[in-house]
Give the backbone structure.
Amino acid sequence: MRTLKKAWTYLVIAAVALVASVNYELFVFPNQFAPAGINGICTMIQYVTHISVGYLSLIVNVPLALLCYLKVSKPIALRSMVYVVTFSLGLLLLDHVDLSSYAYVTENGTSKILGPLVAGVIQGYVYSILVKASAYTGGTDFVSAIVHKYAPEKSVLGISFVLNAVVAVSSYFVYGHQMEPVILCILYSFMSTNVGERLMKSGRSAIAFEIITDYPDEISQDIIRDIHHTTTLIPGKGMYSGRETSVLLCVVNKTQIAAVNRIIRRYPNTFAIVNPVSEILGNFHKLSSKGKEVTEVLDAGDGKTL
């Protein structure tokens, strides 16, 4: 089962790499702007020299992947190279396919902003899947992983920001001394980062209930029976009245807020403090709304991704 899961993970990585290559051909190259990271530099080199990003990506990423393999993590380096190689081969193959009728580009430049926005959304989706599969897109990710290995106090975000700033500024000179490519690069970076972060957090975010009640056993049984979550009982005391009470701590999915609210409303003198939870860490099993254990589709490898 573990072997099949790992094979499926590699297949998914290759599939999203092909999606990324199509994304470049349809929305990045036709609109003449440089996306974020090292691929942005490769895109500008392609624009000037006509050397395919497919070749340039391999030239840059192979030595970085080898260094990551030796110094950081062998599984991450191998999975990331599956992405890089598939992405590069996809670009090289698509160079011989006429996609002009499908590519988004406007003759007079109107709505040119839509190309980078769509490209950023797609790349953010790709990145979120790769993180779950314990893989990188290469380039900046490799550099950040290596720097973090030897200098954990260094800001990975700072490294990415500097590189993306260099790409954005350089695009002004590469694309005919125009501000438009700079703006498009910034929009792409903003969209891909935000979409990626939102998708990565969507499966790990939750809602925490702190329920103050005199009916801890009854409410706990209702939550266990109806929502398939448990609670943690904390003895409490109302400092104004001096009366003993109970506090139930319960973390549920966002879709289960209404169900918990219905349970709380059944009992008098019961109220709850509700707080968002950005992430849940620990060794525990995820359960569906029907109480069945949710199996992770992708193999997480050694889990050393940043």
In short: The mean pLDDT is 85. The chain has ten helices and four strands. The first helix runs from residue 2 to 28. The beta strands are 206-213, 232-237, 244-252, 271-277.
